[in-house]
Amino acid sequence: MVYLDSFDDFEKAAERVYLNAPMKTRCVMKYDHSNSCLKVKVTDDIVCLQYKTDSQQELKKLEKLISNLMKHMASGER
User: Fold this and answer.
1) Residue 21 to residue 54: CA distance in whole angstroms
2) Can you give the pTM of this predicted structure?
3) The 3-state secondary structure of the chain, one letter per residue
4) Who's near 8: CB < 8 A, 6+ residues apart?
């Protein structure tokens, strides 16, 4: 599994994965203490997207992305 380099690419691809398979999509966040970075994985068992960052600005963007995905998941929207 390869990590995407650009947050914008990850954000667009993650939203696309969710919209294509909302009932199968999962999102996992993991903090890697030894490397001081946050790792995020979005998958629907066919497509697997990964992103990692240690930037405070990107953490805020990730928080917003995850929040938006969770809102979609909770409301049942597509």
Assistant:
1) 29
2) 0.85
3) CCECCCHHHHHHHHHHHHHHCCCCCEEEEEEECCCCEEEEEEECCCCEEEEEECCHHHHHHHHHHHHHHHHHHHHCCC
4) none
- What is the mean pLDDT of the segment spanning 16-26? 92
**Amino acid of residue 62:** L
What span, in angstroms and rounded, lies between the C-alpha atoms of 8 and 35? 23
pLDDT digits 0-9 by tens, 27-64 = 999 999 999 999 999 999 999 999 999 998 998 999 99
Query: Distance of CA 24 to CAs 2, 48, 60, Å?
Result: 20, 12, 26
Q: How far is CA 17 from CA 31, 35, 38, in A?
A: 23, 28, 20
